[in-house]
Amino acid sequence: MTETIPYDDLLTRYEPVVGLEVHVELNTNSKMFCGCPTTFGGEPNTQVCPVCLGLPGSLPVINGKAVESAIRIGLALNCQIAEWCRMARKNYFYPDMTKNFQTSQYDEPIAFDGWVDVEVDGETYRVEIERAHMEEDAGKALHMGGATGRIHGADYSLIDYNRAGVPLIEIVTRPVRGAGAKAPEVARAYVAHLRDLLRALGVSDVRMEQGSLRCDANVSLMPIGSDVLGTRTETKNVNSLRSVERAIRYEMTRQAAILDGGARVKQETRHFHESDGTTSPGRSKEEAEDYRYFAEPDLMPMAPSREWVEELRATLPEPPAEHRRRLQTDWGFSDIDFGSIVSSGALGLVEATVAAGATPAAARKWWVTELARRANESGVELDELPITPAQVAAVQGLVDAGKVNDKLARQVIEGVLAGEGEPADVVAARGLAVVSDEGALTVAVDEVIAANPDVAAKIRDGKVAAAGALIGQVMKAMKGQADAGKVRELILAKLT
């Protein structure tokens, strides 16, 4: 078993340094260098051609929409946009790339020297962006016969080349220092910020569970007081916000145990395991010279005009910080209430639920409490739950119309999450509608009054607050489906 030390203990001796490499699949209709479609989930090896398969004699042509998206991403990250740049070949053995090299950018990225600010627990942290460069995605290895879908324990592997050639933007930070104990949370907040920003730009669907946004987390430790960076590890392809935080936290505790024992951290890639939150070794990490970069001879350099760059700048959405401030003002939330939305990763979901017709308070209530609890129990992100903002708004609409109460609404949400249909369908199928029929309610009220003469006497004596106990009894008898307002009216009419 890998040795670790307590998290709080390591913070007394080491400063964590984090670097993040985020790969974003663009939502262009065609691939980076050919006309093949990029639709997710196609039958294996049906979205390929001689260019993305690297067949002899085929020549690539760069996707203009991908270049446009790259520039808009760079501008949104406060980057400088190159006046001249070109593609390069990155060489090493790719089992899932038939041409055996990746077309990427090396020393001439299209965007560089940027920054973003993220907030954690009311404190702002600046994350500097080293570069955002264009490249193509590799294919996907499918490991068959094992229990986990990973290569370990698999009987054999198959390759699906549909993803090979899909346009990617890789966003690379500079080392993030000074976050201390908050380093894992700052990393998570940064990736969440990128996800929201890219979604607002409309350049990617940023579905981490589908791999259209993937994070490689670099972690190292340096003794407090030292200015020499420690040896880093790179945990590859972390595919959820929660996992980004967990992977970094685990690596910190693992590396601290190695350093405390007088050994050296090995520079390598590592794999994150969702089941227990640990990492395991991958391969020894190559340095840039090991990739044998050289300029791509089959593609012309790019020289975005300053006029075009400024035209694209004008298309950028409202900056995230300004957007959050405006929403908080429009919704009338306190800093604490709004902060709970942001910290839970629910801002976009709450906003979409409000747009679908719910009040901000109702949208916050469902996403930050009930749905956040269910996501945590399932070990998934909020936006991975099988319920849409429109469906949450529909649930609240049923509450507002008096067709269900909050308790029943939770059962409606449970049904939607279980795939039982739209909220109204779940209400009908499960028989969850609130009972407002006065005849049925009167029978239940009479039975409860007869069974609780002492409480009834208090109400007759003017202690109206005691009606709550009888209301609760009626609700219990009717399995939570009674109209509580009508029940109260009937009880008071009979006893006062």
- Helix fraction bin: 25-40%
| Biggest sheet overview | 9 strands, mixed
- Order of neighbouring strands in the sheet with most strands: 2-5-6-9-1-10-11-12-13
Output the number of helix runs. 16
Strand content: 15-25%
Order of secondary-structure elements: HEHEEEEEEEEHEEHEEEHHHHHHHHHHHH
What is the overall silhouette?
elongated
The whole-number mean of residue pLDDT values reads: 87
Class from secondary-structure proportions: alpha+beta
Radius of gyration: 28 Å
Question: How many extended strands?
Answer: 14
Ends apart, CA distance between termini: 70 Å
Poorly predicted ranges: none
Oligomer: single chain
Describe this entry's structure for a reader.
This protein has 496 residues and is an alpha+beta fold. The chain is 38% helix and 19% strand. The protein contains 16 helices and 14 strands. The protein has helices at 7-10, 64-76, 183-201, 241-260, 306-313, 320-331, 335-343, 347-355, 360-378, 389-400, 406-417, 423-430, 438-451, 453-460, 467-477, 484-495, and strands at residues 14-25, 80-81, 88-91, 101-104, 111-120, 123-136, 140-144, 156-160, 167-173, 213-223, 233-238, 268-273, 278-284, 294-295. The strands form 3 sheets. A 9-stranded mixed sheet has the order 2-5-6-9-1-10-11-12-13. α3 packs antiparallel against α4 (241-260) and α10 runs antiparallel to α11. The longest helix is centred in the middle third of the chain and has 20 residues, at 241-260. The termini are far apart. The model has no long low-confidence stretch (mean pLDDT 87).
